[in-house]
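Appendix B. Extra example for self-study. Work through it before the problem class; the solution is given directly after the inputs so you can check yourself.
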Amino acid sequence: MNHTYSKKMIQRMSRVSRIYVVVMMALVMGLSGCRQDPAVVEDPKPTKAAVKVPSVNGDTLYGFVEKQLSFGHRIPGTEEHKACKDWIVEKLKGYGAETQVQEFKASFYDVVDADAYNIIAAFNPDKKHRVLLAAHWDSRMVAEKDPEKSMQDDAIMGADDGGSGVAGLLEIARVISENPIDLGIDLIFFDAEDNGTPNQNNKSWCLGSQHWAKNMHDPNYKAKFGILLDMIGAKGATFGKEGFSQRYAKRYQDKIWSLGQRMGYTDLFVDTPFAGIEDDHVYVNQAGIPMLDIINYDLQTNKFAHYHHTHKDDISVIDKRVLRVVTQVVTAAIYKESTYHL
Ligand SMILES: [Zn+2]
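Solution. C-alpha cells for the complete assembly:
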C-alpha cells in the first residue's frame, strides 16, 4: 500500500509551513534591525532563468551558406567576391545594423594588391557594453590537401571554411533584428583570411584581421570579449578548446563551453584542449580584445577535419544541426551577457 495524505493532513501541514515562514521572517527582520551598518541594497537583477533566448533557424542558416556558394568562389579581386560582399552588406543593412566596409589591398600567391573588404556591422552603436562576433568571408583559391593532385590548384567552394561562419553571423543579425538586445553587438566579416601559404609564412593568413587590428574602424573601439566562428557547420564536427583562446580568452571560452554543455550539446562542445590555430582571433587578441575561436578540429587525428582545404568542402559537408547548434549557443551567450553578464 502506498502512503497517502488526507486532505486534512495536507491543510495542517501547509498551516505549519505558513507559521514557520512568519517566524523566520520575524527572526530575519529582527536580526537586520540589530545591525549597525545599513543593509546593502543591491539593484534588482533579473534572474538567470528570466533570460529569454530567441531561437535560430537551421533552414535559414543553411540557405545563407547556399546563397554564398551561388556567387561562386569568393576570392579577393574577383567579381564573384565583390558580388558576395554586396549581398552581405545589403542583408546587414536590411536587418538594421549600422554597416560599413573597410577597404584594403591583399596580396597572396601570385595575386598582387587585390581589392579586399572587411565588412563591419554594429547593433546598438551607442552602447558601451559590447561583444564582437567575427568570421572570415573569403574562400580559398587552392585545394592543396585534395587527394586528387590534378585538382589541387583549383579553388574550393568553402561551404564550411568561410560559408558557415558568415551564415552564423547573418542569422544572429536576423535574430537581433526581430528580438532587440540590450547590448552592443559588432559583427566583423574579415576578408582574405584563407589564402595564406601553408608551412611558410604565418603572416600570409588573416590579412583582413591584421589590417583591422592596425586600423580599427573606430580608434577607441573596445569590446568586452569576442567570439570567432570558423568552420562551425560540418557533419561530425567537434569543438575542442583551441590553444590561443585558452591563453587569451579562457574565462569566456570556459563559460561558453559549459553553456553549450548545459544546453545539451556535449557531443559538440568538448573540453579537450588542442593546438593554437593561426586564425583571425590572434590579431583581435593582439588588439586587446579577448577573443575565442569556435573551430572544428579533429581531436583524434590532431589535424583539421578530412574535408579541410579539399573539394569536399562543398554544400554536402554541411550539417544543419551542427550549424544551428553552434549558432544557437553563441546567440544564448550574447542574450545572457546582455542580461546578467557571462
Ligand atoms: Zn581555411
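Self-check: The longest helix spans residues 7-34. If your reasoning did not lead you there, revisit section 3.
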